[in-house]
Structure formats: structure tokens, C-alpha cells
Amino acid sequence: MKSRSRRIDFTGYLFLLPYIILFTFFLILPLAYGLWLSFMRYELTSPEAAGSHPATFVGLANYREALADSWFRQSFFATLRFVGMTCPATLILSLLIALAISTIPDRRQQIYRLAIFLPTMITISVAGLVWRWFYAPEFGVFNAFLAHFGVKIPWLTDTHWAMKSIVIMTLWWTVGGPVIILLAGIRQIPDAYYEAAAIDGAVGWRRTFHITLPSLRPVLLFVVVLNVIGAFQVFGQPYVITTGLPERSTEVLLMYIYDVSFNNFRLGYGAAMSWILFLVIAIFSLIQFRLLREK
């Protein structure tokens, strides 16, 4: 029995082996290499890059340079603005849509689930180009509609509107995923809870606030953490729609890291900024777990 138990455990690890191999080669090793690179001076345009020692150890110099870099701070604050606008809006909108769809009979729910999830299946390049046309100041769909009311909005050419325009497009593109997750969580709530609440006189929004939302707490935590992580890693939307304009107001941190690493060929400095972003995401995730965890 003892040897059979060991054999069964070993078989389980064999089933895990393909994933462990892929996880190690495509995530763990690149992360480790990026961490090593962040302590190096590695510039592809330098004369040393063609030699046998392309990287020079500089310690924390890359991190100190990043914290003193005004463009790094500007792109970081642009990312924070995007996160601060996108995450609450995504959570509220997805929760309202999920609650509304959950009241529809099951057979008709499939149509609404498909309609709300369909935009997430579109690649960011296609979605970004389409919305760039929507936002066009002269012939765009939105301004053509607003022209009937005598209104014209500089969606992508004004620093006040550019980031908001990206947030609106992001909501349309990404809200379907959280809606599906929340709908699955709502379906897992036992009907007995609602029946007991109905006997006590809890109906309408009282059922939502006293039964649905507390029961969805673990699912809400999952949705919030995933949205914050995804929002901090935003790249495609501003890169395709505004390219960081106007006045670099929509140049988020990943765009600056990409520019420094692959246009200026400073791979070590780019790796250091990437690890700073990783630490910020980790801190925000821990704070959310602390605030939203179950007692």
C-alpha cells in the first residue's frame, strides 16, 4: 500500500510535468533573466554589445535612474490615472450588467451573454483602429451624432479627453469577461437564501445588498484583482489609438518601457522599470487581498 501510494503521487506529478515545464521556460526563467538584466548596463548600441561581455553590472543604478526620470514618473502617473478610472468603472458596470442579465430567463440569457462577451474576442489592433475612426474629429461616428446637438468633442486631440476616450474604449472591449465571471458567481448562490429572505420580507434591492453582494465577495475579489493587474499592464489601447499623444498624456508606463528597451536599445534600464511595475502591481494586489478578504 505504501509503494502504491507513492506511485500514485508520482503519477500525479507526471500529469503536472508539461505545465511545469512550460511555466518554467516561459515565465520563471524570463522573470529571472529580467531581474538579472535590471542590475546590468546593457545597451545594444554601445561598442561593448558586440564583444564577449555585453552586460556590465551596475547594481541599483538603473532603479535610481528610473526614480529620477521625469518621463518615467509622467508615464507612471498616466498609468495610475488609467487604473483609477478604468477599474471602478469596470467593476460597477460589469456588476450592474450581470445583475440585470441574471433576472432574464436562462434561455434568453445566452443571447445577452454572447453579445456582451463578443467584443473581448476582437484583437486590440482591430478594435483600436475601429475606435480611432469612431473618435475622428471631423468624420467620426460620435461627433457626427453629437453634431445634431451642436456639440463637438476633441476626443483624441485634447489632454482632457484623450485618456477618458481610451477608458471608454477599454470598458467596451473588456467588460464582457468580468460580466461572465460574475454571472457564474450569481448562479452559484443557493436559491434557499433568497427564499428565506423573501419570508423575512427582503425583496428587490434589499436582496441584492444583503444576499447577492455578500455571497459574491470572493468572486468580486477575483474580478477586482484581475482588473487592477490588467489595467496596470495597459499597452495596446493607447499605443494603437493615440500613440501616447497629445503631449504624451496617454503614454502609459509599458509604452515608455517599450520605447526605452526596443527603440533606444537600453534593455537593462527597461528591465529595471519593468520590475518596478511588477512590485507596484504586487503591492496593490496584496492591499486588495487585505481589504477584501473574508473574515
Q: Which structural class matches the secondary elements?
A: mainly alpha
Ranges where pLDDT stays below 50 over 5 or more residues in a row are none
Radius of gyration: 24 Å
* Mean model confidence by pLDDT: 88
Give the strand line-up of the largest sheet: 1-2
Secondary structure tally: strands: 2
Oligomerization status of the protein chains: single chain
- Strand-and-helix sequence, N→C? HEEHHHHHHHHHHHHH
- Percent of residues in helices: over 70%
What overall geometry do the principal axes of the alpha carbons give? globular
Proportion of residues in extended strands: under 5%
* Secondary structure tally, helices: 14
How far apart lie the N and C ends? 40 Å
Protein topology:
Blueprint: H1 2-38, E1 40-41, E2 56-57, H2 61-68, H3 70-102, H4 106-117, H5 124-134, H6 141-146, H7 159-174, H8 176-187, H9 191-199, H10 205-215, H11 217-232, H12 236-241, H13 253-263, H14 267-292
Helix pairs in contact: 1-14, 2-14, 3-7, 3-8, 3-11, 3-13, 8-11, 11-14, 13-14
